[in-house]
Specification:
Layout (H helix, E strand, L loop, with lengths): L2 H10 L2 H49 L1 H17 L6 H12 L5 E4 L3 E3 L3 E14 H12 L5 E11 L2 E16 L4 H7 L9
Antiparallel strand pairs: 1-3, 2-3, 3-5, 4-5
Helix pairs in contact: 4-5
């Protein structure tokens, strides 16, 4: 509708009709302004709530910072221990010598892939005529040394005629990183002269 027609229509209105039109336009603009204010206040409330949540999250991060750094240092320490797996038989012989026992028999198992990045190396050992204290000290020394070494199996039989002495069969394992999963791939490859299944 052209502006001239609107002016002509308004000029033909009576004073009462003009007052009603002004009131109607005033109500329309007041409602629009009220809706705009409500939307702005709601947006500010949402921003304030998000800011409070961010402050709470930052506070939690700050309060947990020391625990996080401790866990990170422990994780780094374990990663540093993992790649340098010891020669298990020599490591076990040294631990046995320190507690005053000997290892008469040890058999190294074939490496076993564990996941995509790690390989488990294990040694089966037999201990003869040891007492419980010697066995406990030996296992403690093996597992709390500078490397990631664990006792994965333990079998104990008391000796005939002397219940305080025993024979023990122990499987000790360590883990190391494989070279880009080479161990896992190598385990699936057939050996020389063998055909793949």
């Amino acid at each position: 509708m052209p502006l001239g027609l609107i002016r002509a229509s308004i000029s033909r209105m009576t004073a009462r009709e003009r007052a009603m039109l002004a009131a109607l336009l005033g109500i329309f603009f007041a409602c629009g302004a009220a809706i705009l204010v409500v939307l702005i206040l709601d947006g500010l409330g949402t921003i304030d709530e998000q800011t409070s949540q961010m402050r709470a999250a930052l506070g939690a991060l700050t309060s947990e910072r020391d625990a996080y750094l401790d866990r990170k240092a422990e994780n780094t320490s374990q990663r540093a221990r993992l790649p340098a797996a010891p020669a298990l038989q020599g490591y076990l012989e040294k631990a046995a010598l320190e507690v005053g026992i000997s290892i008469p028999q040890s058999d190294e198992r074939a490496p076993v892939p564990r996941g995509k990045r790690h390989v488990e190396r294990a040694v089966d050992i037999k201990l003869r005529d040891v007492n419980l204290e010697q066995l406990a000290r030996f296992l403690h020394k093996v597992e709390t040394g500078p490397y990631l070494v664990v006792t994965s199996q333990l079998g104990v039989r008391p000796r005939y005629g002397n219940r305080e002495r025993m024979d023990a069969e122990v499987t000790v394992s360590t883990f190391e990183r494989s070279e880009n999963g080479a161990a896992a791939k190598g385990a699936s490859k057939p050996g020389p002269g063998k055909e793949a299944p």
